[in-house]
UniProtKB/TrEMBL annotation:
SUPFAM superfamilies: Peptide deformylase (SSF56420). Coiled coil: none annotated. InterPro entries: Asp_endopeptidase, Peptide_deformylase_sf. It comes from Methanolobus profundi. GO terms for biological process: proteolysis. Keywords: Hydrolase, Metalloprotease, Protease. This is Predicted metalloprotease. One of its GO terms (molecular function) is metallopeptidase activity. It comes from the Archaea. It holds the Pfam family Zn_protease. Transmembrane segments: none annotated. Residues 32-132 form the Retropepsin-like aspartic endopeptidase domain.
Length: 178
């Protein structure tokens, strides 16, 4: 690793520590958010009396005229989350970090979560900034992929083994025509 890269990483880590320190929470409460920011996806953390999950929403601002755009990722951190409601059933292929292959699982199409605190980090690729704030709301609703990720992480907190039909239970079939 180059010295300049190492300096940049250390500077970033210092700013990260200062930002998350403003919320008066233990550092480990932010692990799911930090992992989402750095690696993508949704994550969970369970220390018994403190649980947290991160859930991502991704948007794209695209200008048809200039044919350019930027994504905005919103990473929501829920402290001690609970379900308010779940609706619908979606069959989907999913892979958990604990397993090597994807499995067919069922997830709710939409969920509403409540938490003691909700903190959001919005990543602007256009401005190359991460905007962090605590929401006044104590509930959030998610649909589609964000709901699937939330449900997956809630299973981790509930100590439910994420299990589904393995990929090798599927059969290949040739499609005829176009």
């Amino acid at each position: 690793m180059k010295v300049n890269d190492l300096k940049a990483i250390l500077k970033f880590s210092s700013r990260e520590e200062a930002m998350f320190g403003r919320f008066g929470l233990p550092r480990d409460a932010f692990y799911p958010m930090i992992l989402s920011l750095k690696l993508g996806g949704a994550w969970s953390y369970d220390a018994g009396d403190l649980q947290s999950i991160s859930v991502m929403k991704v948007f794209t601002n695209y200008d048809e005229e200039t044919k350019t755009g930027n994504t905005i990722e919103e990473v929501y951190l829920f402290l001690n989350p609970e379900y308010v409601s779940k609706e619908g059933i979606v069959n989907r292929l999913e892979r958990c970090g604990n397993k090597e292959e994807r499995s067919l699982v069922t997830r709710p199409y939409s969920v509403i979560l409540k938490a003691e605190r909700i903190i959001v980090a919005a990543i602007s690729t256009e401005k190359r900034k991460i905007f962090v704030r605590e929401l006044e709301e104590k509930t959030m609703s998610f649909k589609g992929p964000s709901a699937f990720y939330a449900a997956h992480e809630m299973e981790h907190l509930e100590h439910i083994e994420i299990d589904g039909l393995p990929m090798w239970a599927f059969e290949y079939e040739e499609m005829k025509g176009q």
